[in-house]
## 1
Amino acid sequence: MPVKKASYVDLKVSSRSGQGAAVLGALSAAGVDLLAFTGFPDKGKAQIDLIAQDLSGVRKVARKEGWRIGKAKRCFVIQGRNAVGSVHRHLKKLADARINVTAVDAVAAGKGQFGMILWVKPKDFAKAARKLGAR
């Protein structure tokens, strides 16, 4: 199961319908290829995390659209064959290394595949990358 190191920026938007579609539409129109996208409520607004292998395209669109994006941070994107214990296996490696997982999103992706985004504290990123075999 490949574990990729990835970068992301967060974007705060108003919590109204269509905001996520507008953000993704602008990125799509510019040909920006995201590894993952996640959004959730945050103190009366919404936070969108834009996860990419290379953030230069995201930054270019953000400048054009007038978005105020946060500083780049790191996470892991994990993809693989979906089976009982697929997500557990990765979380157990980190637990055994006493690395706290800040957040995780995982989903069965169909056709026997799954995907997961996993966040740890910046101070733990290098150690987590080694434990997960991330490239």
## 2
Amino acid sequence: MTVTPELLLQAYRAGVFPMAEHRDDPEVFWVDPRKRGVFPLDGFHISRSLAKTLRRDAYRVTLNTAFGDVIDACADRSETWINHKIRALYEALHHMGHAHSLEVWSGTRLIGGVYGVSVGGAFCGESMFSRERDASKIALAWLVDLLRRTGFVLFDTQFLTNHLASLGAIEITRSEYRAQLAKALQVSADITSASLASSSQEIVQRNTQTS
């Protein structure tokens, strides 16, 4: 079966996503986890140490500025499920307005980021990376703040890791995920409909009010 960007969007709407065995594997397979990781958008946990890092504002955050660079950085590890086909598919979705990246910069250096796919009111996080301490946590804090303010109701993380759990992510069953996804697909959300926060201090304050 030829996987097209349109088919990929249909897959997300059905609750499945693609992976490859490794970087050089030309094939992709569909994944439908029995247990699904999600971020309750009102439950993102900013620890005292992360709040201190955020308040320093010693970096710059952008949206959809370096999508290809973020994917490449996410794939730049000894083992990755991002092969050439997957990279090309997500680049196509990005150009169609369905895939988005959030970047964290130190000067002109890309130090962290996250990318994913939006369908209705669901944002399906694909991968993230960090080249400096807490850079991926900073990216997630800014992303959750933006998703909250642009109408999203579901933030899918695919799998639950200890790293994500420490930030408030939880694990739900496949059937519960499908139910949440069905509701999210009835919602019209646009991640570009609001500007990024003006500062990390603003994010910490809003998070305290909603958590």
